[in-house]
Automatic annotation (TrEMBL):
Organism of origin: Petrotoga miotherma DSM 10691
CDD domains the record matches: ABC_DR_subfamily_A
Keywords linked to the UniProt accession: ATP-binding, Nucleotide-binding, Transport
The keyword Transport is annotated on this UniProt entry: yes
InterPro entries: AAA+_ATPase, ABC_transporter-like_ATP-bd, ABC_transporter-like_CS, ABC_Transporter_VariousFunc, P-loop_NTPase
Domain ABC transporter, first and last residues per copy: 5-235
Domain of life: Bacteria
This protein's name: ABC transporter domain-containing protein
A GO molecular-function descriptor: ATP hydrolysis activity
Length: 310
C-alpha cells in the first residue's frame, strides 16, 4: 500500500526547553483515515503543523508523498495534492462565497465545476453563493472552508477539527462524502475531539498525550484494551422480572459480579466458563437468548478509561 505520510522520531519544542512532541512516529496510507485524538494541549495541532512544514521539528524525518515538507519546492508538490483544514482559522469576511471559491479554483487550477456544485448542494450553500462570508454562521463558515479543501479532489486531507460547528445532518453528509473519497484512495489525518466522527470515519486512531503517542490501533482495539474488567453480556428475547432472574442465578459459580436488568445479564469475570455457565442455566430455565457476547465499553468510555489509566 502507498504511504502518504511518513514521520519518524519527530521531536518539537516551542521554547527549546520542553518537548511538545517527543519521539513521534506515524504513517498514513492511501485510502486510510486516521484519527488523531488526545486531550487539550496534547500536541495534535502542533503535530499537524510540523507534518505540513509550517513548524520546524527539532529532530526527526518527515515525508509526505515522498517529499520533504521542510523544503519549499517539495512542499509545493505536497500542497498541490492535498487539502488542509486548519483549526478555527477565520475566513476572509469581505469575500463572497463565490469569490472565496474562485480563489481556491485558481490556486488549484480547477476548471470543472461539477465537484463544486455537488459540494454546494451537499452543504446547502447554493442560496448564499453571492453572500459575504462575514455574514455566515460558524457552521456555514466551516462548510465553506471544507468545500475549498475538497474542490480539487485531494489525495490527502489533513484536517484539524473538521466537524466543529456542524449540525448532525451536515456531519453525517460530510462523513459520507469523506467515505467516498476514501474509496477513491484519499487518505486522511484528522485531529479531533468528536467521538462520532472517529467511530464513523476513522479506520485507525493515534492517541497522543503530553506529546507522546500512547495508543495506536482501531477503535475496537481501544475498547478491548481499555476495559477495566472483562465483561460478558447475555441479552434475552423478552423482559423477565429482575427478582426471577436473580433467583435463577442465585447459585451460579463464583462470578465476581452479576448485574441483572430486565432483559440483560452482565457478568463481570475473567473466567469465560463462568459466563458460559450462566448462559447454560438461563437456557435450561427455558429463557430465549437473543445475544451472548463480550461486552465492550463505548469508544468515549474506553477513551476516558485509557487516559485515566495512564
Ligand atoms: N505558539 C505556541 N507557543 C508556545 N507554546 C504553544 C504554542 N502553541 C501551542 N503551544 C503549547 O504546545 C502544547 C500543545 O498544544 P497543541 O495546540 O498542539 O495541542 P492540541 O492537542 O492541539 O490541543 P487542543 O485539543 O486543545 O486543540 C500545549 O502545551 C500548548 O500550550
Amino acid at each position: 500500500m502507498n504511504k502518504h505520510i511518513d514521520a519518524i522520531n519527530v521531536d518539537f519544542t516551542y521554547d527549546n526547553k520542553k518537548l511538545v512532541l517527543n519521539n513521534v512516529s506515524l504513517s498514513t496510507y492511501q485510502g486510510e483515515s486516521v484519527g488523531l485524538v488526545g486531550p487539550n494541549g496534547a500536541g495534535k495541532t502542533t503535530l499537524v503543523r510540523v507534518l505540513l512544514g509550517i513548524l520546524y521539528p527539532k529532530n526527526g524525518n518527515i515525508q509526505v508523498f515522498g517529499y520533504n515538507p521542510l523544503n519549499k519546492k517539495e512542499r509545493e508538490k505536497i500542497y498541490g495534492q492535498m487539502g488542509y483544514l486548519p483549526e478555527g482559522a477565520d475566513v476572509y469576511p469581505q469575500l463572497t462565497l463565490k469569490q472565496y471559491i474562485e480563489l481556491f479554483k485558481t490556486l488549484h487550477e480547477v476548471e470543472d465545476n461539477s465537484t463544486i456544485e455537488e459540494l454546494l448542494d451537499m452543504f446547502d450553500l447554493q442560496d448564499v453563493f453571492e453572500k459575504r462570508l462575514g455574514t455566515f454562521s460558524k457552521g456555514m463558515k466551516q462548510k465553506a472552508k471544507l468545500l475549498t479543501i475538497l474542490i480539487h479532489s485531494p489525495k490527502l486531507l489533513i484536517m484539524d477539527e473538521p466537524t466543529d460547528g456542524l449540525d448532525i445532518a451536515s456531519k453525517e453528509e460530510t462523513i459520507e462524502y469523506m467515505r467516498k473519497l476514501k474509496k477513491k484512495g484519499t487518505s486522511m489525518l484528522i485531529a479531533t475531539h468528536d467521538p462520532y466522527l472517529v467511530e464513523n470515519l476513522c479506520d485507525r486512531i493515534i492517541m497522543i498525550n503530553k506529546g507522546e503517542i500512547i495508543f495506536e490501533g482501531t477503535t475496537q482495539q481501544l475498547q478491548e484494551v481499555a476495559q477495566n474488567e472483562p465483561c460478558y453480556v447475555i441479552e434475552l428475547m423478552e423482559k423477565v422480572k429482575k427478582e426471577k432472574l436473580e433467583e435463577i442465578l442465585n447459585n451460579i459459580g463464583e462470578p465476581q459480579k452479576i448485574i441483572v436488568e430486565e432483559n440483560t445479564i452482565k457478568i463481570w469475570t475473567d473466567d469465560e466458563n463462568i459466563a458460559k455457565n450462566v448462559y447454560k442455566k438461563v437456557v435450561d430455565e427455558g429463557l430465549i437468548v437473543k445475544n451472548f457476547d463480550r461486552y465492550l465499553p463505548t469508544f468515549s468510555q474506553a477513551y476516558k478509561n485509557f487516559l485515566e489509566g495512564k
